[in-house]
Amino acid sequence: QRWSRGMSYCLHSESHLDTGPIYVRENGKLHVVNQGAGGVQNVTPKARPFSLFSRSFSVELCMNREDDRARRQRTDHFIFTYTKEGNLRYSAKSLFSLVLGYISDNVDHIDSLIGFPEQIAEKLFSAAEARQKFTEPVTGLRALQKFTEAYGSLVLCSLCLRNRYLVISEKLEEIKSFRELTCLDLSCCKLGDEHELLEHLTKEALSSVKRLLLKDNSLSDAGLRRMTAPVRVLKKGLENLLVLDLSCNPKITDVGIGYLLSFKKLNCLDISGTGLKDVDAVIKRLQMQIGLVHSKVPLEEFDHSNCKTEGWAEQTVLQWEQAVMEAMKPQDNLRSRVAALHFYGKTRRIEEVVKCTLVEPETKASGNLQFYKENVQNCHLPLKKELAGSHELKNNKKRALAEQERERTSKQKHLCLTVEDWDLLNTY
């Protein structure tokens, strides 16, 4: 009876699939159910080719291929520490740190940071910098530009690229994205008159530069003419320049010095090692027209140890330099070639880093040609004693930057959180 009820349910159930004949074993005998007739036949089934899977069945082998990012996302929400007993203990991270990590992983997709509080932006920049987001070829430049256009000198106020011509060639667009620099050291980079970075010096983005060091860069009168053209013609460009170093550029002559007379705010000038013909006439001309007096002793403004990279992106510049140095290391597949060249006696070509050395013959010929203004107090004192002499002076510098940022806040460029707002944010 139970068998008949089960068969009737199976026969009368609605099914959209053709299951074929149904076989039932009862009392040791195999019965076939004929769905069309609705009866049961006690017959031996015909031999049919048996297939375990249908023709449309497919198998895909899935392996555990979790990348580092997926693995980090599982543990990134926790902080792992150890107790006094040596047991592993973990605690959940704050919501603010979680959001900060997520945005820093996708920092290149930010539309704009203008109007964003600078305290949070600094933490966001540090988080992206720790992930080396600014070293990536395309996305790094796009992310860096979002910070520089919104925060200017906070990202970088001083940049030292002395002897780093490889960093300039590899990260030229990133360097050009920095705005509102006050100090720029390009000494011993052999840039020449036609380099794109020298042309960028005349742009409005670098009109804030007050200290420019161009020692030993193969400059000539033509390069000075291009560099000073915006100041001479449009009263723009490097109009706020206070300190200028053009030493060890033998191609600069008396004609090129005439272009420097447009820098009316210039307080200190170094033209030692240049190709001047009439030194006395140049000294008299600089004193009469822009008030620069020839110094009898070397000025410590041109010590080249005073200019340092300062700002949020200080570690970013170091990451660029490390990446360039890693790329310069010899590869393993080139060792056999070097051995073959050594065996056959061919001269091995070695590209050495350009070292900044004073041009002794030119310097001895022209002597020490450093100038300063007498009516400017402490012009010829070392800058390192003024800027980095003590922690108190550093704090004064930070306060000065804070005052500048408050002025920019009034222009609605970006906001500055109050102490109460910052404490409230840290509670999340």
Automatic annotation (TrEMBL):
Keywords for this protein: Leucine-rich repeat, Repeat
What SUPFAM superfamilies does UniProt report for this protein, alphabetically? RNI-like (SSF52047)
- Please list the coiled coil stretches: none
Q: Which domain of life is it from?
A: Eukaryota
Q: Does the keyword Repeat apply?
A: yes
Query: What InterPro entries does UniProt report for this protein, alphabetically?
Result: Leu-rich_rpt (IPR001611), LRR_dom_sf (IPR032675), LRRC42 (IPR039631)
Which PANTHER family does this UniProt record tie to the protein?
A: LEUCINE-RICH REPEAT-CONTAINING PROTEIN 42
Q: Return the similarity comment.
A: Belongs to the LRRC42 family.
Q: What is this protein called?
A: Leucine-rich repeat-containing protein 42
